[in-house]
Design goal:
Elements (H helix, E strand, L loop, with lengths): L5 E3 L6 E3 L8 E3 L6 E4 L5 H20 L3 E5 L2 E5 L1 H10 L3 H31 L6 H14 L2 H15 L4 E4 L1 H16 L4 H11 L9 H6 L4 E3 L6 E3 L9 E2 L6 E2 L6 H21 L3 E5 L2 E5 L1 H10 L3 H30 L6 H14 L5 H12 L7 E4 L1 H19 L18
Antiparallel strand pairs: 1-2, 3-4, 5-6, 5-7, 8-9, 10-11, 12-13, 12-14
Helix pairs in contact: 1-3, 1-6, 2-3, 2-13, 3-4, 3-7, 4-7, 5-6, 5-13, 9-11, 9-14, 10-11, 11-12, 11-14
Length: about 425
Amino acid sequence: MQRYDLISCHDCGVLHRKCALRPREKARCTRCGAILYRGTSSDLARVVALILGAALVFLIAQCSPIVEITYSGIRSSATLMGAIRVLWSEQMRVVATLVFLFTVLFPAVELGALLYVSLGLRAGFKVPGFDLLLRAVRAARRWGMIEVLMIGILVTLIKMTAVARVAPQPGLFAFAVLTMMLAVVIAIDPKALWNIGDDLAPQAPPRLDYAALLASGVELLPCHACGLVTPFAPGAPGLRRRCARCGGVLHHRHPDSVNRTWALLLSAALLYLPANVLPVMYTRSLLGVQEDTIMSGVVYFWESGSRALAVIVFTASIVVPLLKLAVLALLAATAQRRSSWRPLQRTRLYRLIEFIGRWSMLDIFVVTLTVALVRFDAAGEITPGPGAFAFGLVVVLTMLASMQFDPRLIWDHPSPLGEKHA
């Protein structure tokens, strides 16, 4: 049974009536074209099997060596956790923490929470912490970067073939399978699981007459965590309104959205120059010490004949951060002025930077694996440089800036209810 038949578009705020979808079907906003929700299989046994399979592959990928290289008769291999430990021991603890969060913790949270919740629903009850776990799934999905790590592994493999003999290990194939399985898992909509949980609840919230509420002019306030749309009741100033279903904070627009976006954006812009000028790696050998910046890595791939890789690294590490800074500045400036200029095109730009934001971490993952693999003592050793630290912060700050920006402001002329967003 579909209990809540209205859904709000995350990108423009328009309310739509929900309809049933078959698996792999998508519902899109009629105004801005954003994906509102996807059809999810009602076969919970199949959902549990898929998530359990992905979780098992995830464990294999984390515990298995990814690649082995041989240089002058010396062998070296690396697991993902081993690479993170090397970064930690090299005093690059912020970068090590970021890699751990994006490739280990957040994917584990998503798979573990989904598996626990789905097993409970299949057994016919809502597990303890049901709402908190599904909110955690939504948050973890925005930061998990297994697909970016997979491309980083491939770039590292090609880079290492120029200096050593490379042998793929089980972890490489496990990460490849995991990337494909996560592409299917992401189609499991937490909002659909919330609706299934409400059907199992002995005292579910009553179904609302949305047509009557809209006709009476009552403001409807959507929860962006669980999707529940509820009537807006003005409260005392500063009072936080929370969703009756999941406990998430409700607001018409993110408070101080533009100011927070500007603060994070300017911080990222200040770090962008040192991120590209300072070395991201030091290569120590019998011939001395060589410093490598992001741009020198691009030049190396280009001159060695791997021009496709040079384009990929240049795009992910140079073009994408600059594009994010420029687009976010445009969006923040036009929202601050409450401009009505091309709202659909600006919304599409926002979706673009949301999609490409994580790919800037590609170079950090390449540095992580390279540092872990090239540990040959006197014969050769690679250590991380301060540029990796600065670049990692640029990626995180720009992602936070895009998350703080409320795209619904693009469509507000002027801001509704006189709320303060800048």
